[in-house]
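explain this:

___
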Amino acid sequence: MSLRKLCCFTMLATMVAFAAGRLNPYTTEPVRVQSPVAVQSNDARDLGPGKLLVASRDLRDPNFAKTVILLIHYDDQGVVGLILNRRSDVALSRVLEGYQGAKDRSDLAYLGGPVELPTIFALLQSQAKIEGADRIFSGVYLISTKPLFEQTLAAKPDPQVFHVYLGYAGWTKDQLRGEVGLGAWFVFPADTGAVFNSDPASLWPQMIRKTELKVAGSEPAWRGGAGRHSFPSSDTRHISRHCCFHDAL
């Protein structure tokens, strides 16, 4: 192609681009850069079963500092949650001594919260509906009765989709709403990956970084404790002799 033809072709392409509005150096429209959108909320109206609570950096109560909690019950009678990222060093075979299905299980129990530490809950991911279990969200079910727990253990569920919790976290509805309003907690949508995270120690750092994508409008006012009880101890050596189930949820 000759130099003259190349110049004519370039000028024609430029004119077409201007006409289409794709190349306008004189536009007064500001360039819009889409900023990352954080999925978390500080609005107490977003609370409900299946939602995740992520402790803010300012929540210093040792019972709840750096925790991620799944809400499994939420109504005017009260709120119940399970801490997802406090895995103990005690195998289910020890915690559930006497349960035939737990005899050879080496997967570790989780400390679900400071309330009624001997109480047992389990979360199970299943594509099929589990009769007698409470569906928390999507394919995640709560097991809180002894017969269903024994039935589930007998089926030898994969530890990647089956977690056992000792104790739980509890609030009144107004108490938790107040804590969220003060900035103690971020509220995240349901997330199966968070519930069954294979590295629970990394869960809170991952999620708190997500909250920092959003520029805070004001500094959190929260500096106090959260929840209504304190952990009596993280020692689970004797829990196997006193395990019970919470059928009231």
Observations:
- Helices lie at 3-19, 92-95, 146-154, 173-181, 192-195, 203-211.
- Residues 3-19 form the longest helix (17 residues).
